[in-house]
Design brief:
Length: 362
């Protein structure tokens, strides 16, 4: 990237960031949702998985990995298996493979930490994976340890530092510790301001910003500040869309560039949270239309056995309940349970989410 193009990108990104949350808008959607959910039920019933994709991913997940050899290559091999398991929604396998990849990545030298097999990337993904396999408390402990490790490292990794504290802030909110969440958010805002003054980071500012705005929206929603939460989520969505547009360029420069599907899932998560906020504001038509869009895209991208599809259907059931359409809400809620069961989470997800429950790890 030339100095001129970097400067132009910096100006454009800073201008976008300065627009503020109020400038963000939900993409154009139809004026009203359909009168029933019959079309969605038909879509869910008729869904057929992409068999070729599943066969390919399962082959990658089950590919034998060597137990001895170059640590860098071993880390890549186990990380690739974990990525395939994540795509298949096999979260226990993904966590197991990430743990094995981590052992080898610690021993590898001169490896780009942002690429497949990179230590920081594997370490971050492993801490995230614990949320689904061992619970919120285990994930929190892992991220706090990772943050301390990053701050003591000689290798600068601002994206991973920011990402670790984003996860920590979200976990504080789950625990109900709002003051610690506010303190962590203030720390994130100050850190982002420092990073914004570094021109080489211009292409990752939107990625950083969407994470912080997502935390802000979550905190506001838990405090009952729904209008503020809406603005924060809209800003997060807009910044993530900018981040996705820049992803190819980041990859070409060796910067952090996760798979586009992963970024789309993160954006859909913010859109689901926005839909919850719209329900709280009694803007039910907007919420339902947004959820229908998320559901359609997630089915195409991830298939029916997707945590994201299950979350979307659960939120849609809430919209229908608020409308007083109780039979339809029950039908959609049942489909939410079905998709989570297909994703292997329905019987264990609830206790794992609750801190201190039998499913959590203290």
């Amino acid at each position: 990237m030339t100095c001129r193009s970097l400067a132009a990108a910096l100006v454009a990104t800073v201008a976008l960031l300065m627009q503020g949350p109020a400038a963000a808008q939900v993409r154009d959607l139809p004026a009203q949702p359909p009168p029933t959910v019959a079309d969605l039920v038909l879509l869910l019933q008729s869904y057929a998985p992409n068999r070729e994709r599943i066969v390919r991913l399962r082959a990658e997940m089950n590919a034998p990995a060597a137990t001895t050899g170059d640590p860098a290559q071993l880390a890549i091999a186990w990380h690739q298996k974990a990525i395939a398991a994540q795509e298949l929604q096999e979260l226990d396998n993904a966590a197991d493979f990430l743990e094995k990849a981590l052992v080898h990545a610690r021993l590898a030298r001169n490896v780009n930490p942002n690429q497949v097999g990179g230590y920081f990337r594997i370490r971050s993904e492993y801490a995230h994976s614990l949320l689904y396999t061992r619970g919120t408390a285990a994930s929190m402990d892992s991220f706090q340890a990772f943050a301390r490790e990053l701050e003591g490292s000689r290798q600068p990794a601002p994206g991973y530092v920011l990402g670790a504290y984003v996860a920590i802030a979200n976990h504080y909110i789950h625990f109900g510790d709002m003051q610690s969440a506010r303190d962590t958010l203030a720390r994130l805002d100050a850190y982002f301001k420092t990073l914004s003054a570094r021109p080489p980071l211009v292409l990752v500012l939107s990625h950083f910003s969407q994470q912080i705005e997502g935390v802000r929206g979550f905190l506001f929603s838990q405090e009952g500040r729904f209008a503020d939460a809406q603005n924060a989520y809209l800003a997060a969505i807009r910044q993530q869309e900018t981040s996705m547009a820049d992803n190819t360029v980041r990859a070409s420069l060796g910067l952090y560039a996760p798979p586009l599907d992963q970024l789309q899932r993160a954006n859909d998560s913010h859109r689901i949270l926005l839909a919850h906020t719209l329900i709280n504001l009694q803007r039910l038509d907007e919420s339902e239309l947004l959820l229908r869009e998320v559901l359609t895209g997630a089915l195409v991208r991830d298939g029916r056995n997707s945590v994201l599809v299950g979350r979307t259907l659960f939120t849609l059931a809430r919209v229908l309940f608020e409308r007083g359409r109780y039979p339809e809400a029950a039908v959609v809620a049942e489909w939410s349970d079905t998709t989570l069961e297909e994703a292997g989470l329905s019987e264990i997800s609830a206790p794992r989410i609750r801190p201190g429950s039998p499913g959590s790890t203290p």
